[in-house]
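Bug #2210: C-alpha cell dump truncated for Ig-like domain-containing protein?
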Amino acid sequence: MTRIFGFLFLCLIAGLSLTYCATPTQPTGGPPDTTPPRIISTYPQNGTVNFSGNEIRFDFDKYMNRQSFGNAFRIDPIAGVRYDVNWRGRSVRVRFEQPLPDSTTVIFTLGTELSDHNRNRLDNPFVLALSTGDTIDEGEIEGRIIDARTGRGKRDAFVFLYRFPFDLEARASYVAETDTAGRVAFTHLAEGVYRAIWVDDRNRNRRWDRANEVARPFYRETVRVQDGQPAGLGTLFVNEPDTTRPTLQGIGLFSSTRLRLRYSRDMMIQPEAEITILDSLGTAFTQAVPLFADKQQADVVFAQALRPLPENQTFTLRSQGVTDLRGNEPRTSDRIFTGSSDPDTTHVRMTRHLTERGVRGSEPMIFEFSTLLAGTSVVDSLEVVQDEVIYEAWEPLEVQDNLLFLFPPDVWDEASDYTIRIYDERAGTRRNIQTRILPRGELGSLHIRIAEGHRLEGVNHHISVLDRDGAVVFEGITEDELTVENLPQGRYTVLAFRDDDGDGRWFRGDVEPFRAPEPFLAQRNVEVHGRMEGELDLEYPHLPGRTDDPEADPNEEPIESGGEPEDGDVRPGESEAGESGPSEP
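Reproduced locally. Full output below:
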C-alpha cells in the first residue's frame, strides 16, 4: 500500500510539473492564424529618460516562438551587454547583468525574424529607445532598398551604420533592417556624421566579412544627422548575382525509362537542355530528355531515357540546360542509381499550356506533355475547333520531344474562338483547352524618354520592360529616347540604368574606396493601353554627386496605376521618406 501511495504521489508531482513548465500555445481549432504578432506595450515606455533599472519588458498580443527571440533582439549602439531572457505567458523580460552606461541613448530592436507560434513574423522592426541621462537623442536617418530585378521593396535587408570616425573593420555602431516595403530607418541618433552600407550579413555578427559577404554603398557616402532634421540615404537598388549552384539530391525511377530528379532548389528547363546517362565505367549509355518541372514541387524534374536502363546496372548522369531559376547549372554529381525492369505505364497527359496568356499573328500555340509524344495518339486524336467547325487533321503542327506546336495556316483569326481538344489517356476522353487570340487592337506601345538633366552626351541608357510575371518582353539601348512596340494591354515594370563607364553592365558600386553605383531606376505599374502610345519620362532618383534629397522620388509612384496599389507600392499623392514532389501519378 505504501508503494502504491508513493507511486501516486510521484505521478501527481510529475503532472504538476508538466502543468507549470509547459510552454504556452495558442488554442487549436478553427482557421489558421496568419496575422503578424504585435507589441502591445513595453516597460519602460519608448522615449523614457533617466532610466536606471536593470530590465525591460515586451508584451505581445499572442504567444510567441521563444526560440526566434535570440536572433531578433539587438542592442545599439553599445556592444557586449550581457543579459538574461525570461518568458512568462505573452511577455518577455530582458534583465541586464550590469548597469547600462551613463548618459547614453540605448536602442533595443526586435527584428522581423521574431515570430509567433504559427510562424507569423513581425511586419516591421520594433524599436524601444530610452536614455540613462536627462535627454534622449532624436536624430533620424531614413532610406529604402529596392530589388533591382523586380522593382519591389527588398524585405529583411540589413544596413550597417557607422559613426565618424569610420572603421569598417569594426562592429557596426547601429544595425537596422528593412520592412516589407524595403524601408529602413535609424532613430534616436546623436548628432554627427554617419556612413551607411548594405551588407549581406549572413552570420548576423554586425561585422562586414569582406571575404564572404557582399556589401554595397548608397549613392551618398556620408550623411550628417541633426536633431529634428531627418537625413535621407535615398534609394539603393540591389541586384547581386546568385551564383550558388543547385545540388542533385536524389534520383528515382518510375520505370526502366522514367526518371525523377530532385534538386536542392527550384529548377527550370532551358531550350536545348539534355541529360547524358553514364554507365559504371563513365561511358555514355544513352540520352534522356528533360520533360518538365513539377508544378507543385518545382525542385523536381521529370526526364525520359531514350533506352531502357537495365535493373542489373548502375548509372550516373550529367545534365546541361537544367538550371535553377537564376540559370545556375547543378554541381557535378557522382550520385549512383540503379536501373529498373518496370515497364513505363505513364499516361500521356498535357501538363501545361505554355501560351495560355495568348498568341497573336502567326505565333504557335505550345502545349507541354508528361511524356515523349512520338508513338502516342496525341497527334492522331487532336481536334481543333474554330468557332463551330471541327478540324481533325490540323496543319501545320510540329512535335519536339514532349512539346506540341500548333501553327495557324496563315495568321490566327482574331474574330474566331479556338478550342483545342487533346486526348487524355488517364481520363479516357478529350480535354478542351481554351485559347486566347490577342487582337491587334489590344496592342499598344510605350515611348520612353530620358529626362533632360539625366542624360550625358555619348552615354547609353539600358532599358528593360518586364510583364506582370517578371518576364523580360523588351530590352533596348538609347542615348535619349526609344519606343517599345506591340505590347499587350496591361501593366509593366520598366528598369533602366545609365552606363557611365560604357562597359554594357550596371556597376553596383564599391564600398572601399567609395564609388557610387551607376544611376538606376525601377518604375512599376506602367500602364499600356491598346491602340495607344503611352509616354514615360525616366528620371534617376539619385544621381552621383547630387547633395539634395528630393522630397518626391519619381521612382516610387506608379504611372497610371488605374487601381489599388499592390503591397509595397506607393499610392499616387503619397510620399515615403528616403524612400516555391509529390510522386507523379
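Output looks complete on our side. Residues 441-556 form a domain with the Immunoglobulin-like fold (CATH 2.60.40.10). Marking as cannot-reproduce; reopen if the truncation happens again.
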